[in-house]
Specification:
GO terms for molecular function: proton-transporting ATP synthase activity, rotational mechanism. With 179 residues, the chain is α+β, with helices and mostly antiparallel strands. The protein is built from eight helices and four strands, in the order ααααααβαβββα. The protein has helices at residues 4-22, 26-41, 43-49, 56-66, 73-84, 91-106, 121-135, 166-178, and strands spanning 108-115, 138-145, 153-157, 160-163.
């Protein structure tokens, strides 16, 4: 089976172009897609959308009925396209691809920061400022805490990883000693 990102990319690119051509707010589209993705991840929704007793029109009605945000005609057409092609369950990956395109256009990126301890707002701002200089992008931080790191931080920006955690240093030391 093809990778989900390979399946999702054309849908995300088409929706991104449609949103830009309409002059729509990309941030609102991103929010709507993330809401769609959250729904598509729910087990009950997944079961309902794959129920062979429902036709495509019923699946579209079911899915759009669960969405709390207003669904525009373009968004409804997009859902109809996904249902017709049996791709609704790929929505989480489509939302991720859409956000990557939006961030690329804006010159921003998501910085997934994992710290061994909780960081204050000031510490996060200082870290983001230093990372923005290093990566040359405007970063949007998403901070999580993972005590398994022992100390330090691990930062993921796109496909780049900066791991200064104590755990990573111990692993490198172990690998050096074992070699």
């Amino acid at each position: 089976m093809a990778e989900l990102s390979t399946i999702a990319r054309p849908y995300a690119e088409a929706l991104f172009q449609a949103a830009r051509n309409e002059g729509a707010n990309l941030e609102s589209w991103s929010g709507l897609l993330n809401e769609f993705a959250s729904l598509a991840k729910l087990e009950d929704v997944r079961e309902a959308l794959t129920d062979p007793r429902l036709n495509d029109a019923q699946r579209v009605e079911l899915f759009t009925g669960l969405v709390k945000s207003p669904v525009s005609a373009t968004a409804r057409n997009f859902i109809e396209l996904l249902v017709g092609n049996d791709r609704v369950l790929v929505l989480p990956e489509i939302a991720e691809q859409f956000d990557l395109l939006k961030n690329q256009l804006e010159g921003t990126a998501l910085a997934e920061i994992t710290s061994a301890f909780a960081l204050s707002d000031a510490q996060v701002q200082d870290l983001v400022a230093a990372l923005e200089k290093k990566f040359g992008l405007k970063l949007k931080p998403a901070v999580t805490v993972d005590a398994d790191l022992i100390g330090g931080v691990r930062v993921v920006v796109g496909d780049q990883v900066l791991d200064t955690s104590v755990r990573a240093q111990l692993v490198r030391m172990r690998d050096t000693l074992a070699a």
